[in-house]
Amino acid sequence: MKSQQPAKQRGRKPLQHTTRHTSSGRPSRVKGPCQACHETSDGCMRKAFDWPFPASQIFNDKGKPFVYLCNKCGLRYNKSAGCVCRHCRWVFCKEEKRKAMQFIDKMRRNRPDGHVDMDEDIEDFVCSPKYWPCGRPWKVGWVLLNNNQAQLDLEEDDHDSPASM
Ligand SMILES: [Zn+2]
Ligand SMILES: [Zn+2]
Q1: Domain assignment present for 11
Q2: Least crowded by CB within 10 Å, which of 55, 97, 131, 150?
Q3: Does a structural domain hold residue 161?
């Protein structure tokens, strides 16, 4: 089997993927606005797999669909392993995820059978994005079901690296 390049229908020679350490993006290819915050970033965009929403532009990497997120949302998407508010598309950072998990733990502890349903709202927890208002509750499943599913292309990772991987 010949290895197939994913849908690259431009007539020009493909620039080979050299690891370039520029942080100021490549304006030649439009990757669209961030699917989370809708900002059109001219900086580096990050691939986000397992994006839970229909997107205006869906790309493909070896058969795996992904969307582009801006640098900020993409980093958070990676660190929270894909925890996204289904109301406002706010992507959790690691801290928020940890906090949400604590609330879920608390719910479990308060129950005789220790069971919480994935469809339940997380008690006492509301979505509080940094950049826009939401204030809606999160479902337990948004935090728990996404564990380790999300993957992100971290080709241009930066100083903001996690303490534990
Ligand atoms: Zn964004
Ligand atoms: Zn929200």
Answers
A1: no
A2: 131
A3: no
